[in-house]
């Protein structure tokens, strides 16, 4: 309840204004005798000039909300990270302990509920103290609030160099302006509104602005739950945040706290017993240091960083990037994301243990999207953005996303990784889209595709040569040496046979259909750093049939989600909604979903990719997912970059394991020890596979685990007559060491970006 104002000294009254201005004029060293006579008699005097100066000062104060911390939250509302330039969380006066309200008034402005913004008694007291050779502040809480509001506005306008704090730095004009604004503000706002604004804006520490942040920083509690000793301590801090810091200056802070308690007792706000008990209480802090920024997220630092880049790249959040940065750091946004903590926690644990804590050369990554919505549900990798968080790899690069977005803005990602045989379903899709069948037979014995080979293409020439007689080229090779035979397209994909994929491409009515399918799946790369935007995968380069060009895991997951969603591609999204501290909403992301593949084609692809898991290279994955599963393994030519992209009806996960540093595509994954186990050569099913399966075992039940829709029979049975058989040459076989456990994943077989059949 606000106390009644003293009518004699209330600056809202005529007499109060005269008395107030007397004090102001004295403070400014201006002659005030003229104010004691009628205004009409005051002409040509210093007093009249003072009155004019005062009248000309601005009388309106725009109270913009002070900068507040932005929260990035998961789909369930749990906090992922906090982003701010000033750590502040606004709370209402009702959500503050009465001890802090009474304490701050008692020590800073005990006549707060009596004056009208400027306290003549306080000014007079300060003048007397000055005359005696000492100093005493005369600023009311209202004046301090006005000063803070002005400074906050300057900071928001990137004019921090103009900020002036309370004290001797203020000029006479500044002090007069502050007084006039305070008087005007008291006419617009109630005392409680001013006190609430002050306690939310005032500086306590570089880590804590406002009472809520200060309570959590110094005592690990809320402003509502502050005890009397804690509240008195914080009320004492504002006078000198450095001098009365209870952490670094406990003795000074205790002395100041006790002065606050004395003042509260004198005002009758606490009893003598409360006072005495509080004075006896030791100065004990319990510090909770805020962790500012995505790098300190304990759950999803790289996903958070991706979200931050999305905000900074979007004009909906400000006309310029500095505007967007200011909104993110000061706007008190709540950014609700699509991240599902039920998936994120297992994903992070899985990638952390995949390579082992002592491995600093291998990268592990997992990303899951939801088919039909495009929502990114988890995003994890085995590195950290800052040291000391349990990983030997410290990097800002996000393994899962592109380097740039479609407008050329940074996304924080890398250039992706060579997807290897996970690219083979693109050729399969083209085959099925032409009305051909999964069980049609192709000639997988052919290993030579010389210059001038008669590819059937209606758009542009095919670029690439696989011919030992061509300088610098080799014959096409399979990972398994005994698979140079006539086989069905289904068997070729199931066993990941390179020569079968090429035979399928050669038998197409139009080679350009492969490009059309890649475009339908939105496959692209940011590998070429000279380009300002992502580039489509050029499927006319033969090496790209086998995954030679680097692609981000999120891109691969979204492409396979098109199969899971029966041909409808949904663009990946990470932001569900954004609202600021005042309730203003900003546009979240809306996935663009469009049917880009014929539903029957997508269903038939899924039929084949289920065989990959049950009969092909995926069969080598020792851990089984308790739901119908389809997918494809992938390994690059050096076995240094390996993949599994797998999906149920409700989840699509891209799992990557391999080199992540410069020239990673040249790094060999042959004859390597990983996490205490020796691998003659690393295959997609060996490490990326178990990583995917062990993770999916824990999370598939949260989403649809039903059976896939059956593929139409017209895309399954045999009707195609293959070309004449070509006998394989002796030197066409891959002579590398092969595991004897079963079918393995075919690698890129060379090709690279040169399209000449060279090994990368």
Automatic annotation (TrEMBL):
Domain of life: Bacteria
Reactions it catalyzes: [GlcNAc-(1->4)-Mur2Ac(oyl-L-Ala-gamma-D-Glu-L-Lys-D-Ala-D-Ala)](n)-di-trans,octa-cis-undecaprenyl diphosphate + beta-D-GlcNAc-(1->4)-Mur2Ac(oyl-L-Ala-gamma-D-Glu-L-Lys-D-Ala-D-Ala)-di-trans,octa-cis-undecaprenyl diphosphate = [GlcNAc-(1->4)-Mur2Ac(oyl-L-Ala-gamma-D-Glu-L-Lys-D-Ala-D-Ala)](n+1)-di-trans,octa-cis-undecaprenyl diphosphate + di-trans,octa-cis-undecaprenyl diphosphate + H(+); Preferential cleavage: (Ac)2-L-Lys-D-Ala-|-D-Ala. Also transpeptidation of peptidyl-alanyl moieties that are N-acyl substituents of D-alanine
Organism: Arthrobacter horti
Keyword field: Carboxypeptidase, Glycosyltransferase, Hydrolase, Membrane, Multifunctional enzyme, Protease, Transferase, Transmembrane, Transmembrane helix
Any Pfam family: Transpeptidase
Gene3D superfamilies the record matches: Biosynthetic peptidoglycan transglycosylase-like, DD-peptidase/beta-lactamase superfamily
This protein's name: Transglycosylase domain-containing protein
Bilayer-spanning residue ranges: 12-37
Domain called Penicillin-binding protein transpeptidase: residue spans: 367-650
Keyword Glycosyltransferase in record: yes
Positions of the UniProt region annotated as Disordered: 713-760
Domain Glycosyl transferase family: 77-264
Residue ranges with Gly residues bias: 747-760
């Amino acid at each position: 309840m606000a106390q009644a104002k003293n009518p004699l000294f209330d600056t809202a009254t005529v007499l109060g204004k005269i008395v107030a201005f007397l004090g102001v004029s004295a403070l400014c060293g201006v002659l005030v005798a003229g104010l004691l006579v009628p205004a009409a008699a005051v002409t040509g005097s210093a007093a009249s000039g003072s009155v004019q100066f005062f009248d000309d000062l601005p009388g309106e104060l725009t109270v913009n909300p002070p900068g507040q911390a932005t929260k990035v939250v998961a789909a369930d509302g749990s906090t992922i990270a906090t982003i701010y330039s000033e750590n502040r969380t606004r709370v209402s006066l009702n959500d503050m302990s009465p001890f802090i309200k009474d304490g701050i008034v008692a020590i800073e402005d005990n006549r707060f509920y009596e004056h009208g913004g400027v306290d003549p008694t306080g000014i007079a007291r300060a003048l007397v103290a000055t005359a005696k050779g000492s100093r005493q502040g005369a600023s009311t809480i209202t004046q301090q609030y006005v000063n803070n509001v002005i400074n906050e506005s300057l900071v928001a306008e990137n004019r921090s160099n103009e900020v002036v704090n309370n004290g001797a730095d203020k000029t006479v004009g500044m002090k007069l302006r502050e007084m006039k604004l305070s008087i005007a503000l008291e006419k617009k706002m109630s005392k409680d509104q001013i006190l609430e604004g002050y306690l939310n804006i005032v500086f306590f520490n570089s880590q804590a602005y406002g009472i809520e942040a200060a309570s959590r920083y110094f005592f690990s509690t809320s402003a509502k739950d502050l005890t009397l000793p804690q509240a008195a301590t914080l009320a004492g801090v504002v006078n000198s945040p450095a001098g009365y810091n209870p952490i670094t200056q406990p003795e000074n802070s205790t002395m100041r706290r006790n002065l606050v308690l004395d003042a509260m007792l004198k005002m009758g706000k606490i009893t003598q017993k409360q006072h005495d008990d509080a004075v006896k209480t030791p100065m004990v802090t319990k510090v909770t240091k805020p962790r500012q920024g995505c790098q300190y997220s304990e759950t999803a630092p790289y996903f958070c960083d991706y979200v931050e880049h999305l905000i900074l790249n979007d004009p909906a959040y400000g006309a310029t990037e500095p505007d967007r940065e200011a909104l993110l750091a000061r706007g008190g946004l709540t950014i609700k994301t699509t991240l599902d903590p039920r998936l994120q926690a297992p994903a992070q644990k899985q990638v952390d243990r995949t390579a082992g804590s002592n491995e600093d050369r291998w990268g592990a990554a997992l990303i899951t999207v939801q088919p039909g919505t495009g929502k990114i549900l988890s995003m994890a990798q085995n590195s950290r953005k800052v040291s000391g968080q349990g990983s030997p790899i410290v990097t800002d690069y996000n393994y899962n996303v592109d380097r740039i977005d479609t407008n050329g803005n940074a996304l924080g990602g890398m250039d992706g990784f060579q997807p290897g045989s996970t690219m083979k379903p693109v050729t399969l899709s083209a085959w099925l889209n032409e009305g051909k069948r999964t069980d049609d037979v192709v000639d997988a014995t052919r290993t030579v595709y010389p210059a001038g080979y008669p590819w059937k293409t209606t758009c542009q020439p095919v670029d690439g040569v696989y011919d030992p007689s061509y300088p610098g080229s080799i014959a096409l090779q399979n990972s398994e040496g005994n698979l140079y035979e006539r086989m069905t397209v289904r068997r070729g994909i199931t066993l990941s046979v390179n020569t079968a994929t090429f035979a399928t491409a050669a038998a197409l009515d139009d080679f350009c259909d492969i490009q059309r399918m890649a475009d339908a799946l939105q496959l692209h790369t940011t590998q070429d750093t000279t380009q300002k935007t992502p580039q489509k995968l050029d499927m006319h380069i033969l090496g790209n049939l086998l995954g030679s060009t680097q692609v981000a895991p999120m891109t691969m997951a979204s492409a396979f989600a098109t199969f899971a969603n029966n041909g409808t591609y949904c663009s990946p999204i990470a932001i569900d909604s954004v609202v600021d501290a005042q309730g203003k909403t900003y546009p979240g992301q809306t996935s663009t979903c469009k049917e880009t593949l014929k539903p029957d084609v997508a269903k038939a692809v899924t039929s084949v990719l289920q065989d990959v898991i049950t009969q092909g290279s995926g069969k080598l994955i020792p851990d089984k997912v308790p739901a119908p599963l389809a997918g494809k393994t992938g390994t690059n030519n050096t076995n240094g970059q390996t993949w599994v992209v797998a999906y149920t009806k409700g989840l699509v996960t891209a799992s990557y394991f391999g080199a992540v540093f410069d020239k990673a595509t040249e790094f060999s994954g042959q004859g390597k020890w990983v996490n205490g186990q020796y691998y003659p050569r690393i295959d997609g099913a060996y490490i990326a596979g178990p990583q995917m399966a062990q993770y999916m075992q824990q999370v598939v039940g949260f989403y649809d685990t039903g059976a896939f829709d059956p593929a139409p029979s017209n895309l399954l049975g045999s009707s195609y007559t293959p070309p004449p058989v070509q006998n394989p040459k002796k030197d066409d076989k891959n002579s590398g060491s092969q595991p004897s456990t079963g079918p393995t994943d075919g690698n890129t077989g060379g090709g690279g970006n040169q399209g000449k059949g060279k090994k990368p």
